[in-house]
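Before anything else, study the sequence and fold tokens given here and see whether the fold suits the sequence. Record follows:
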Amino acid sequence: FSNYQQTLAQTARGLEKLGLIDNGQVSIPEGTESTSSMWLWLADHARGRITFLRDGHYSAEWDAVARKNIREAIIERVRERRDVDMIIAMGTWSGLDMCSEDLGIPVFSMSVTDAVNAGIVKSAEDSGKDNVHAQLEPGRFRRQISMFHEIFHFKKLGVPFEDTPEGRNTAAMDEIEQTAKDLGIELVLRSAPLDLPDPKEAFKNLMRCVTELSREADAIYLTYTSTPMEKIPELMAPVIDAGIPSFAQAGPQLVEYGVLMSLAQASFADIGMFEAEAMAAVIAGKKPREVSQIFEPELGLAINLKTAMRIGWNPPLEILAAVDEIYQQIPAADHD
């Protein structure tokens, strides 16, 4: 997922600023959302208190069978080979898999929608395990939906998501549902199975859901998706054709590709420094559980003006004044 790349890159830069490695200037590769080449670069170039193991990068590529095998392999490695004394776990799957076992070494759960509801940590204030730390931003999705609703005053909000326990956690559905109830919004829900061996079939499912929601809802809240960025313009086409506003849960990168708006942070640098400081505190002697998990970024608004024009919305000046990121084009849709 693209957020994993950004989080890893900026964490490495944070570790360099803190003097824990002497070279964290890893670049983000183009044309892929994998972190594999980034990890290998850090293994070869980042020296210091932290060593990135060259054979220490694992990815299930969103495959449930591979996930199980990787989980078992890492647990065996930590317990038998004992050449690992810290783990970065990106996303909900790896956070659950690494935090469900008391491995006896620090585990840093990063880039998770809601680590509490996912069951990775006990609460925002307490991870519940001495060796576990997660980054948490309480109320993040409530703020998103509240702001979106304040601008457009929609009655029916369409939400595509994968209706499984993990899919609900990834999309933070409990927070979405409670916010909608508090604001008097009717949720129009569609389940899009994404855990499929064929990514084309997963995209087809999501496309069907978004198309149906475009006909039945007044606005669309696009939850986290593993859909490649180049497919987002195609995914958003029925929403734009219907002339309704859309909001990206994941952030401004999807706005660049055609979603109308999202909350934006100036960069992932603040996330990376937060993670690096947590790792530094543990290296200095604290237990991961003792390090604060609450992350409070400064947020602004991201808007795609091309999408706004196509749905017939002219953003008021007070909205434009709050915008930190503006995109004026939508890349051509990839129909391959």
Summary: The longest strand covers residues 156-161. The beta strands are 87-90, 107-110, 132-134, 156-161, 186-191, 219-222, 246-248, 261-264, 300-304, 323-327. Residues 78 and 103 are 7 Å apart (CA to CA).
